[in-house]
Design goal:
- The protein contains nine helices and ten strands.
- The chain has 309 residues and is α/β, with parallel strands linked by helices.
- Helix content is 32%, strand content 19%.
- The chain has an eight-stranded mixed beta sheet, with helices on both faces. Strands 7-8 form a two-stranded antiparallel ribbon.
Amino acid sequence: MNTTTAFYPIGTPGQPWGAAERAAWRARQMKQRSYADDVLTVVDRLGARFDVQQYGELDAGPDGRFPVFALRSKDWRDGLPSALVTGGVHGYETSGVHGALQFAEKHAAEYAGRMNLLIVPCVSPWAYERIQRWNAEAIDPNRSFGDDGRAAESAMLKALVAPLKDAFLVHIDLHETTDSDEGEFRPAKAARDGQPFEPGEIPDGFYTVGDSEDPQPDFQQAIIAGVAKVTHIAPADAKGEIIGSPVVAHGVINYPCRELGLCASVTRARFRSTTEVYPDSPRASPGQCNAAQVAAVRAALDYALAHAG
């Protein structure tokens, strides 16, 4: 697994970034792929099968404006259980975006008449294009779902979900853990916050993050079992941890989601999970990573339906 020490080239060690450092960081972020080509073309194609809702528009200043969309079941019925699937909260986590779209295109029809689906495939389009964790203001959207969150991407998703917040049975949020977390994003965070960078270890394989307030261990294990048919599950490290958190079951750790302002706290769904795929593994291909996200969504929805009572 990758372990890296790093000096980040922006800022003064020990001093949090100001406006000048944030501007210098943003100037380094170059467009590397197209949200319009990769995401919006698929959303448009899915318009015949879903009610497509534009729930906001991200104003990224000189980098343009990005409409953001949700796919909603055409046969939405208030009497059915509902599920939220989110991807691309961190734009660089590619399989979260493409896994959500692949699930919508190939498997959502299996739940018609049984479950309402709301699928938000790319919460952070500016970051998607730049293969970046943060938004254009160097804010992490996945720490911005609390009351004091400052990311526009998170605020728009919160507004979308708010009318249905109590109606969801399940929410699965699709993420990745990559080698760049250790080589770029954690060093950048340390520099931004004026803190020392302490190297860690990247786990080789898929894992889930439950909510420590209500971890639902059987639900997490159902997701792990579904994904294990597609790709390998991350083992605990020598300390019995994954990314610094105790492993509570095979491939499962827990976080305090509301305290941290994570996307997994955006609803009051009974069943909540954050997936983490490892795309840099020599044992996994991009196709497997997408398939792992799809398998996770299907396992989550199937478990929730079976235990909805």
